[in-house]
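User: What would this chain look like folded?
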Amino acid sequence: MNSLKYLTNSKHGLLITRSFSTSNLNLANHKCKVLVVGGGGGGTAVAAKLCFKYGAGSVVVLEPSDRHYYQPMFTLIGGGMKKLENSYKSMKDVLPSKAEWKKDRAAKFDPKSNRVETEKGDTIEYDYMVVSTGIELNYHKIPGLVDALEDPNSQVVSNYSPKYVTNVFKAFERFKSGNAIFTFPASPVKCPGAPQKICYIFEHYLRKSHKRNDAKVFYNTALPVIFGVKHYADSLWLVVKNRDINVNLSTNLVEVNSAAKQATFENLTTKERTTMDFDLLHAVPPMSTPSALREHSGDLVNELGFVDVHKHTMQSVRYPNVFAIGDCANSPNSKTAAAVAGQCQVVYKNLVDVMEGRKPSKSYDGYASCPLVTGYNTCILAEFDYNLQPLETFPFDQSKERLSMLLAKRDFMAPLYWYGLANGIWNGPGFIRKALNIFR
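Assistant: Here's the prediction, encoded as structure tokens.
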């Protein structure tokens, strides 16, 4: 048996050192040493690292889904470059074999008692927890949107959900002329470049299919900027200018009337509402953490329902035995799969430090990457840190549209995710960046 020292909360809130055997896990008693809540990219990567270090019986993953999706591929599916079946694998094949998979969903967090209650009514006690629930899509918060998406002929589409993404390219093909509107919601968003990427792909599709002269393309974003990093925003403004894409800032979708083919927007500065006719509407829903975090987790989260962590260590600000990774954390980074890669080694190393009686030693710099696909053969690879400064891997200006970056996004990044990140091997391109510094 392998044993190690770990820290846990005593009844008096003190940290004490104990030892445990990694073969002690007994799911019948609903107790575990490390509970990973969520089997997405972040949870799977950290679980794989922990299982490699401590062996079978050390980790329980609480995850309800049968499929694990590589969500960054959804934009390519919407653009007709990939198929939905290319984007997922069976959850049992992705989770580490040495982890115990509990196929259920968290319903209530009780960090003061080191417990999580599940939707099926079970209680799991843990010594350490990694929260990796991601964020959820709230299509229902926009009146009329769900009904429109459920109608396959409505020309209202969304590439954010596997339920709806396959209809996006079909709507492209059905489009003949008129207004095409693409939206960005007034909420945190996973992969914040995706709402405009599909807009650029559609505009290129129009040119390829000789429909561009009969179309007006709009990108209505709730943000006050086209992109948060000026280095890349400057290039994107040139893209939309050269391609005659109309950008409306601080403009939020608030209602959809599919029958009338009309969408209502609110200007977030003036509060004025405007109704626009559309012949295609790509809607991105407002997003939030799951209700179990927002409503049933006490002081584990901030006022918006995101796990309150130190942004460099990813450790809970109140519970030393709790860490968070990915979209559900309140760390002020862009919520992308690349950010998860940048966080996973930090979370793993710092969790091990705490388990073995040390202070967290690793620091996350806010690294995130957003491959901004601008058409069927071009992409701007945005990489940046907490300070919204470029943190580029390659020794050339990545703010330029390049075929090479499109090929990397289309053909290389998914295998890197499945065989690198999900297996706990890939920790982001930092080492490549250092190696290429000689060419800068």
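The chain has a mean pLDDT of 93. If you want, I can go into more detail on any region.
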